[in-house]
Specification:
Length: about 270
């Protein structure tokens, strides 16, 4: 009988084409994890067959993820180049292995830029996406005299220093339940674009500027568009009040640019 497992995943998204598996695309986070899990299941099945057949070594043709019945369900899809410290996914597996052994196996065979931080048995009905109550994202910028040599893949380098006070003023207009259509990359989205943003915190730490967004869910590229818009305010290209007007207009063309993917990290998913 299949068991449901909940896993917390961290990854460096630099060289991947996002989370979601895509036909003909090998470099996705989901694809890499499903490939390792499929291999694990096939090895376990082969071992069972070998024991039943008293030493037979036939391990004919490993199956792909779909054939092996391995399908990860994530809390949400991260785009190409986006990182995660707390992505959550669940998967149903036909295995007798313990959660600890599964986690150990996965970390042994996954690429070095993907790691399973936690893995445990979950209730049969647990779903990483539908049961999620909220998410926290962090967007990190850098403005300094020297280059961020060692964390250049995880920050967006700015060519001018933004006004943090004005950015915080602008962020106040975004707190609460609103229609965030102006901050959605998909203009043809048929589902509701109403979301609740509980908090936006903007911190200055030396040359680093970090924006933390917490809400019940986010639209396609929403956090990056919000970040790009707040930076426009910081650069003096729009007033804090203008952000409220853009929100009410429900027009993506009025908002700021989509900030670069490399500065974004999914920090935590609430359940």
């Amino acid at each position: 009988m299949k068991r449901n497992f909940k896993m917390t995943i961290k990854y460096d998204g630099t060289r991947y084409q996002g989370w979601e598996s895509q036909p003909g695309v090998d470099m996705t986070i989901q694809g890499k994890i499903e490939k390792v899990l499929s291999r694990m299941i096939e090895e376990e099945r082969s071992d069972d067959v070998n024991r039943d057949e008293k030493g037979s070594t036939d391990k004919s043709g490993g199956k792909n993820a779909d054939e092996a019945g391995v399908k990860l369900m994530a809390s949400g899809r991260t785009d190409a180049g986006v990182h995660a410290l707390g992505q959550v996914a669940n998967v149903h597996l036909d295995t007798t292995m313990s959660a600890a052994d599964i986690q150990s196996y996965m970390n042994q065979y996954l690429p070095e830029d993907i790691a399973i931080e936690d893995l445990k048995d979950a209730s049969e009905r647990f779903h990483a996406r539908y049961n999620a109550l909220g998410k926290t994202y962090r967007y990190t910028c850098y403005y300094g005299d020297s280059k961020p040599v060692f964390d250049r893949k995880y920050v967006t380098v700015l060519d001018q220093h933004p006004d943090i006070k004005k950015m915080r003023q602008a962020a106040e207009y975004l707190i609460g339940t609103h229609d965030f259509k102006s901050f959605c990359a998909n203009p043809r989205m048929k589902k509701s674009t109403v979301r609740c943003v509980d908090s936006i915190e903007i911190e200055k730490d030396g040359p680093y500027i970090r924006m933390y967004f917490h809400g019940n869910g986010f639209l396609q590229n929403m956090v990056r568009i919000l970040s790009g818009t707040l930076l426009e305010v910081g650069f003096g290209n729009m007033t804090p009040q203008r952000v409220g007007e853009i929100l009410e207009a429900k027009d993506r063309k009025l908002a700021g640019p989509t900030a670069k993917a490399q500065g974004l990290c999914l920090m935590k998913v609430d359940y």
